[in-house]
Amino acid sequence: MSSGNQLNRNVLTKRHKWAISFSNKVKSERSAELxxxxxxxxxxxxxxxxxxxxxxxxxxxxxxxxxxxxxMKQIPMNLFIMYMSGNSISIFPIMMVGMLxxxxxxxxxxxxxxxxxxxxxxxxxxxxxxxxxxxxxVALALYKCQSMGLLPSHASDWLDFIESPQRIEFxxxxxxx
Length: 177
Description:
The structure is a single chain. The protein contains 6 helices and no strands. By secondary structure, it is mainly alpha-helical. Component of the ER membrane protein complex (EMC).
């Protein structure tokens, strides 16, 4: 038993070169021993504050035009999706048409939150282009619905709402004796 305790004490007291003892040292002494990681500078002059840097106006204008033209850039992809989904009435084309409607309508509802960060003299024009682009996407969705036969565009689609005419004369067959 005593040899086991002796072995445990030797293991506990033996220090390896990579071991760090966290007992009985003040934090300032430990930080003086450890070197700084690569790329770290202790000089306070190298601290960079992003808010002190002036914002580049041309970058803001470029970003705002990218946001404004985003619906126009989606039109070719929407056309490809419309072509690939076909005109049959099944789950895949219905889901595609639903997304063709849903995305631009959500974008039109959230137009002010989209352009909240953008200010300037061109923001009205950018909002107008964004609005027109989303309206074009809605028009594409309506065209797809019409080509699938989902829109009531023929007179035969409205037959349920037409009242049947009142009969003036009645005729009946007779029995010959």
